[in-house]
Specification:
Layout (H helix, E strand, L loop, with lengths): L1 H14 L21 E9 L5 E10 L4 E5 L6 H8 L7 E6 L2 E2 L5 H5 L2 E4 L8 E2 H6 L7 H10 L3 H4 L9 E2 L8 H15 L3 E5 L7 H15 L3 E5 L3 H4 L4 E6 L2 E6 L1 H5 L1
Parallel strand pairs: 3-10, 3-11, 6-9, 9-10
Antiparallel strand pairs: 1-2, 1-4, 4-5, 7-8, 11-12
Length: 260
């Protein structure tokens, strides 16, 4: 009976028509995406008029880093979900390189992002496959380079079969810090224009946190970065900090400006 109910839920989901699809004639910006993000008077609600974001506007220039801080439920993660068009906004515009994201082809839009989440998911398979994540064009050399750059190679190369070591379901046997470093290696191997970090250094010892801090700086170099921050250590070096409160922007500026 439990299986029947579960499969009914699965089929119901599979039969749901896609609410968000690519436009019939997508506008394709220049060959290479610069990574300029602009929110123009964005209003968004998951239900009716219950606004999660109210009149949010900001600009991030290519290569800049921006951090969102605020209490739980202030709309930080919602901003990143809207940027990749997991939901459509009710009012305003979200522009990537000056083109409304609703006019982009969905796959081309999402290929520009790499997301590092709080809860890193490792799949059954080997370590290399977990960094490559199904993108066959990423060579083994690129995987090793990415792992070296974020200091993940130190523990990977100590394993019995290094990059061929099998990973158990959900990454059992790996520490939280090791999973996190693998997720940064993933992000670097994919070489996205825009990096989204849903910050995750809260349950990590100090030594690993320093490694992760270096990994974050390496992955953020020369690309537009959006950080959802819970800790001050990550956001002191960003170009712009936006303080959200109940879906509205309360203040914005650099770390020093906000302190002052």
């Amino acid at each position: 009976q439990a299986a029947v109910i579960a499969s009914e839920c699965v089929f119901k989901l599979l039969d749901t028509p896609d609410g968000i699809v690519s436009p019939p004639k997508p506008k394709q910006p220049a060959e290479s995406v610069a990574g300029r993000i602009e929110f123009r008077n964005v209003w968004f609600a998951y239900k009716g008029e219950d606004w999660v974001l109210k009149d949010v506007s900001f600009i991030t220039e290519p290569g800049e880093s921006i951090a969102f801080v605020g209490a739980t439920g202030s709309g930080k993660t919602t901003i990143t979900n809207l940027l990749m068009r997991f939901y459509d906004i009710q009012r305003g515009e979200i522009l990537l390189d000056g083109v409304d994201i609703r006019q982009w082809d969905l796959q081309q839009l999402r290929e520009n992002f790499a997301v590092v989440l709080q809860d890193v998911f490792l799949f059954a398979g080997n370590v290399a496959a977990n960094i490559r994540l199904g993108k066959e064009s990423i060579s083994h050399d690129q995987i090793e380079w990415a792992a070296r750059e974020v200091q993940a190679s130190k523990f990977i190369e100590k394993m019995p079969q290094a990059y061929e070591t099998m990973v158990k379901e959900r990454g059992a046997g790996f520490s939280v810090g090791q999973k996190q470093l693998i997720s940064f290696a993933r992000a670097l191997a994919f070489d996205p224009r825009i990096l989204i970090l849903d910050e995750a250094t809260s349950s990590i010892d100090t030594e690993t946190e320093q490694l992760i801090q270096q990994a974050i700086e390496r992955v953020m170099a020369a690309r537009t970065s959006i950080i959802i921050a819970h800790r001050l250590s990550t956001i002191q070096r960003v170009d712009q900090i936006i303080v959200l409160h109940k879906g509205e922007i309360r203040e914005k500026g650099s770390h020093q400006q906000l302190l002052a």
